[in-house]
């Protein structure tokens, strides 16, 4: 049965929600313990910024869409990722982790990704960015939801991430379908695009930032209590879904990302060691030389505005 992008677009329009739909004064915030607070604050800050980065990635994908319905879908996804960042920021304020008007500072790895996206996102081939987004969403959002539902007793948190997860399920459905559609292109097209990507310093720089970011987040989840089994299930979902598709396996970036995700949970693999060393180097990078963050990073808000 053919995938109907027009029907998906209508479903996305019908499923829109807003921060104002959530009762932010409902009881449950007091269930966050002092023991949980420091690590949860760090974790949520990273998640807020990763969602914000995801919004920027979808903004870059929209003009590359080969037809109007997909371009419109990507623009909705951009707005949804921004909403996810905002609602997670609102949770941090609900839990007393931030002062009035305060926004968390991105860690150095994310700060470098922000700078890189701002400069080069529009130059990325759709096959590269189209393979990276589902990888991040299957690994991080899948693991994130399990971690938060296991560790956080606040019912508002469960309500928030039920909405986020519903959106992400549509992001994944579209993401894997687009990968499959791209895979149907002639192999010579994939060969040319892959050869070009492997010698493009912009894409290579992005890989050097993306690889340690994903490894860092997954290792943090494991360190904060997510079981190895749940982490494994979240990470392998990418390959499980992709390998079942008819043409996805013809997309070279898919195989590169699949290998990296496997390495994040197999600590004996050389790529895992390299990824951790890259993370150490990034931790020592003087991000102050980058100056102010791009203007699009100022769109974060925890105010419960309506649709």
Explain what you see.
The chain is mostly helical. The protein has a single domain (36-297), classed as Up-down Bundle (Ferritin), CATH 1.20.1260. Helices cover 68% and strands 0% of the residues. It has helices at residues 5-14, 37-61, 68-94, 108-120, 126-151, 155-183, 187-198, 201-223, 228-244, 252-265, 270-283. The longest helix is centred in the middle third of the chain and has 29 residues, at 155-183.
Compact description:
With 307 residues, the chain is mainly α. Helix content is 68%, strand content 0%. The protein is globular, with a radius of gyration of 19 Å.
**The CATH homologous superfamily:** Ferritin, core subunit, four-helix bundle
| Count of discrete structural domains | 1
| Biggest beta-sheet profile | none
What's the end-to-end separation, in Å? 34 Å
C-alpha Rg, in Å?
19 Å
Overall geometry comes to: globular
Number of helices: 11
Runs with pLDDT <50, length 5+? none
Helix/strand class: mainly alpha
How are the secondary structure elements laid out?
Elements: H1 5-14, H2 37-61, H3 68-94, H4 108-120, H5 126-151, H6 155-183, H7 187-198, H8 201-223, H9 228-244, H10 252-265, H11 270-283
Helix pairs in contact: 1-3, 2-3, 2-4, 3-6, 4-8, 5-6, 5-8, 5-9, 5-10, 8-10, 8-11, 9-10, 10-11
Organism: Mycobacterium lentiflavum
Protein name: Putative reductase
GO molecular function: oxidoreductase activity
């Amino acid at each position: 049965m053919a995938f109907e992008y027009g029907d998906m677009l209508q479903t996305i329009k019908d499923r829109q929600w807003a921060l104002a739909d959530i009762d932010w004064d409902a009881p449950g915030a007091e269930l966050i313990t002092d023991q949980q607070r420091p690590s949860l604050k760090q974790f949520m800050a990273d998640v807020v910024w990763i969602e914000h980065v995801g919004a920027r990635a979808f903004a870059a994908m929209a003009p590359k869409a080969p037809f109007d319905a997909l371009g419109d879908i990507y623009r909705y996804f951009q707005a949804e990722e921004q909403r996810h960042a905002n609602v997670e920021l609102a949770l941090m304020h609900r839990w007393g982790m931030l002062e009035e008007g305060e926004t968390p500072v991105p860690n150095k790895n994310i700060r470098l990704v922000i700078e890189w996206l701002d400069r080069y996102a529009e130059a990325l081939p759709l096959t590269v960015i189209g393979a990276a987004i589902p990888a991040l969403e299957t690994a991080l959002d899948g693991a994130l939801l399990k971690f938060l539902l296991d560790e956080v007793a606040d019912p508002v948190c469960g309500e928030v991430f039920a909405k986020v997860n519903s959106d992400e399920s549509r992001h994944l459905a579209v993401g894997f379908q687009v990968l499959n559609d791209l895979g149907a292109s002639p192999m010579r097209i994939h060969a040319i695009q892959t050869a070009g990507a492997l010698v493009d310093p912009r894409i290579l720089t992005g890989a050097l930032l993306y690889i340690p970011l994903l490894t860092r987040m997954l290792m943090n989840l494991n360190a904060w209590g997510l079981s190895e089994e749940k982490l494994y299930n979240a990470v392998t979902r990418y390959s499980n879904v992709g390998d079942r598709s008819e043409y996805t396996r013809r997309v070279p970036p898919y195989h590169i990302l699949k290998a990296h995700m496997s390495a994040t949970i197999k600590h004996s693999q050389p790529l895992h060691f390299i990824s951790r060393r890259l993370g150490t180097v990034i931790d020592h990078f003087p991000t102050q030389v980058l100056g102010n963050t791009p203007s699009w990073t100022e769109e974060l808000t925890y105010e419960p505005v309506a649709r």
